Each structure stands twice: as structure tokens, then as C-alpha cells.
Task: structure prediction
Amino acid sequence: AGEGSGPVPADGTGPPAPERVLFPPTFSVSEIKNKQRRHFMFLRWKQQQRKEKLALKKRRRKEREALGDKAPPKAVPKTIENQRVYDETTVDPNDEEVAFDEATDEFAPYFNRQTVPKILITTSDRPRGRTVRFCEQLATVIPNSHVYYRRGLALKRIIPQCIARDFTDLIVINEDRKIPNGLVLSHLPDGPTAHFRMSSVRLRKEIKRKGKEPTAHVPEVILNNFTTRLGHSIGRMFAALFPHDPQFIGRQVATFHNQRDYIFFRFHRYIFKSEKKVGIQELGPRFTLKLRSLQKGTFDSKFGEYEWIHKRREMDTSRRKFHL
Result:
């Protein structure tokens, strides 16, 4: 038997056996050659880590309760978001220049309730079934939107027809290998036009524990974390897709949440369980957008003037630098 592994004398005079250490200080799971054994030991190590973390959390909570009002303030954990590099274009709500730009930009008639949004949703040429179903479900989320399936018609010919029929916005869903992978949003008649990369598309039938089909009520719109001038413009583009006066009786919410320059879209219905508790049901669809470019005017891939283009080699040098 190894040192310290022998039995303790019945009279209790001998030294107590040391507690068994799960992993020695110099032990490394990667040294185990057997794959199954290595995986098992790794799971045990993770379980031990969780137990230690939970015990530390409980001990600190008890210490704070014992100190009462004299307890020191809680430390704020460091995250990529709160360590973000300061952007000089961050919008101040009280900035007069920003207020003047908002009062005179292309979206001002919508926010002044002079125009009612009317959206045309179309696809790339010859779309497949998944893209078609996504467009149909997107039309149930955005009120007063119409789906048109392109049949070889160029986008430059579609835009004048949209303007003649009083459409305020054009949404184009592009696909690759039968999967929606891009979204072009063009505000009519004078722009701007934003091009997004689309990913993580989930249709309604692919969402677990989803609610019933959405109703025709105008949803509320929530825009989160669009803090820079560029993000402010993108947020106003999304807001201009929905009528300005939501119908709260429908209890439906469309959320555009920006996090690290990824825009997550979710569509929910909230339910009042009691006076203090509120539950939510996701209705779908859901998707994620990443801004590629913002162009002045309507869509023009050759001669368009770009306000902003995402350049990976120049802009993605720091993980803590965000543009929206």
C-alpha cells in the first residue's frame, strides 16, 4: 500500500488518512491514452470545477449577507461588450446635429407619420422551397408586405415599378445551395440600400415550443444596442419597415438585437400570466444578419456610392472594436 493509504488504528491514536485528491496538481487529462477513459476523466474534472464554483458562490453570498450594508459592491465581470473600444461616432441622444439629421433624412416622413410603409419582398432568380417559405413567413411578420417571385427580371427594372406602385421598401432574399444567405434592404425612392449576410435561418416548424400562428396585428418593434451613427441609420431602416402605431392588443413583438455587430431577429408573443409574471412564446422565423455595406441611393452594384463597406483585413483587427 502507498503512503497514507493504510487503515486508521481503532484507538484513533494514529494520524488520519489524508483526503483523496481527485487530480494531482501535475496531472493532465491529455496524458491519458485511452479515449473513453480520457473523456470520462474530463467529465469528472468539469463536474469538480462546477462544484467548486458553486461552493465559492455560496460562501461569498453568505459573507455578503453577514456584512449587510457594509458589504463591498459586486465586481462587474469583464466581457467583450463592456470592454468595447470607444467609437467616436457613438450617438448622444441630446446631440442637436443628430436630431437635425433625423429630421431631414430619408426616413423622416415615416417617423412624422406622413407615409405608411408598404413593402415588397422578392427573391433571387428561381428560388428553392426553403427560401420561398421564408419569404412567406417574413410577410406575416411585416404588415402591409407583398411577396413577388422573380422570373428573370433584373433588380434595376423592379425598383422603378416599385416606386410607381408606392412601395416604400424593397427586400431581396438571396440564397446559395438552397439556403437563404443574404438580404438586401433598399428604402424607396431615394435609398439608402443595405446589404446583409444572413445566417442561422430557422423557419417556424424548426423552432421548438413555438406559439400559434401570428395574427394580423401590427407588432411592437424593439431595437437594441444600435449606438453609433451607422448603427442608428440601420436601426431606423428596420423601424421604417413597420407601421408607426403598434396594436398592443396583439401582444406581438419584433426584436432586432445588435450584439458584436451581429443583428439577431426574433418574433415573440408575450402572455400575462399574472400581475407580476409575463411569459413569452417565439413565433418565428428567426435569423441573424451581418452588415456588409451601406449604399447611398437605390441598389446599384456598379456605379453606386457607398457610405460604408465592411473590410475584414482592416476593420477586424480587434475583437473589441464594433461598428454598430
About this structure: The first strand starts at residue 119 and ends at 123. The domain at 92-316 is CATH 3.40.50.10480 (Rossmann fold).
